[in-house]
# Entry
Amino acid sequence: MNGLHELPLVIFTVLAQSAVGCWLIFTFVLCRENNQASRHYLNKVIFILLALLGIGFISSVLHLGTPLRAFNSLNRVGSSMLSNEIASGAVFFALAGFYWLLAVLGKMPQGLAKLWLILTALVGLVFMYMMNNLYHINTVPTWNTAFTSWHFYLTIVIGGSALAYALLNANSEKTYQLRCTPMLYCLGVFLSAIVVIYQGFGLSHIHSAIQQASALVPDYAVMHVVRLCLLAIAGLLLLKVKNAFASGFAVVIVLLAEMIGRTVFYGLHMTAGTAIAG
# Structure
């Protein structure tokens, strides 16, 4: 299967995007939640976001080969999208980690907590922007399209809302409502299906002197059908089965589905040379 050679990047991008998406929703909820028992629960489960993000960063280091290369990649912050991605991701991870630690220890004033949450969310958005821009490469016509941005940003919505809903709904002390989060998930899946269809048609117009873009991933349609079916199953589990195990299993299915989609994305890599996008 084309794209599996980039499995570390598949894991990194999907987990990072899902964690940032979840943080954005948590920021909105925590800034409005005044029940102390509920806030304490929410602050504790932020560790799950950090764990996923940590797994993602470890995977990215495996892609680079050694931790030293990751540090060397920071040498061109400001001029290199890779450096910008790593730097903004590290800052987001640090801010989120310190917030969690101080909040769990009871050392985070509520007024400062809101500012910290919002600042971290903004850094997370910068991180996502840098990650997206990294793949808009002029010499890779199959990536240098609006579809790349749509896929990346929709993973933030789909993975983030699924993870957030599972964690928020498990809060026995909650005073908030969860009407918008399921709607956000469904909207993300719906838009993703549209993007997949349009991209499938668009691939037939991208080719080089020796290869058609659609030939890079001959099972494009099958893999995305499987992905969308998994997302639908996960949505039913999240919304219809009200227990922690089903919610956790649904999140795993969502992450797996998004990784299938990301594997297709990496399989579409094609250096331009004499490539033509028409």
Summary: The mean pLDDT is 89. Residues 36-64 form the longest helix (29 residues). The beta strands are 206-207, 276-277. The chain has nine helices and two strands.
